[in-house]
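Following up on my earlier message about FER. Here are the inputs again, as you asked, copied directly from the submission form:
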Amino acid sequence: MINETYEGINGTNKLNVYLPYNYDPSKQYNILYLMHGGGENENTIFSDDVKLDHMLDHMIMNGDIEPMIVVTPTFNKCEAATFYKELRQSVIPFVEGKYSTYAKSTSEADLIASRMHRAYGGFSMGSLSAWCVGNHSLDMVGYLMPLSGDNWEGVGSLTKEIDRLGLQKDEYFIMCATGTKDIAYENMNPQMEAMKNDSHFTYTSDFSKGNFYYLTANDATHWWGFVRHYVYDCLPYFFHHE
Ligand code: FER
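Thanks, got it. Here's what our run produced:
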């Protein structure tokens, strides 16, 4: 993991960058931004509590995913719901100016052009941050992975953003997950039903046929020990569209 410090719109801040083994700066990589939950920080996801870096190494080795860059930022200099501003103005330009992604440059136009090679996910309050990236910055991100946290702004905030951008249904993909004993379960269920019934979404785990799926794990609680498995389950479905 590379520990990075950057100057952002909310002041000096930190994030961690996972580079896949054999990272080659002459190649282009898909990139996932993955956000921690409340009371956590940018180090949580690569700490011994979660060890996501180990899982990513194995997923790449097993061919479950293409080598990709995974960034763990923090919303601790602002709020989960407003982090999308720091993401688009500070985090993505900093990271993708330094590491090799599909962004040809860090201009807004080039970041928008490379959106289908960029994903954003998060756990709990990080899931809220993911929904808010969808609600307000879907021009820069093609894939969302909200895990164990509902969209406090409501489904209408997301569909409004989709309409504002004029996106087609093969230009945004959302895979959500939680556990049946997770404190987010009862909050997420009605929203997931509303999305299933909304024409902006086609519900299927086969992202060649639709763009929205909700995975529920029996008896799983609000804990990274379960949530890391949702990342394992969701990530292979990402980055298959231009
Ligand atoms: C949710 C349930 C719990 C949620 C967030 C939480 C964004 C966060 C709990 C905490 O930080 O303690 O549905 O949605």
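One observation from looking it over: DSSP finds seven helices and eight strands in the chain. Hope that helps, and feel free to reply on this thread.
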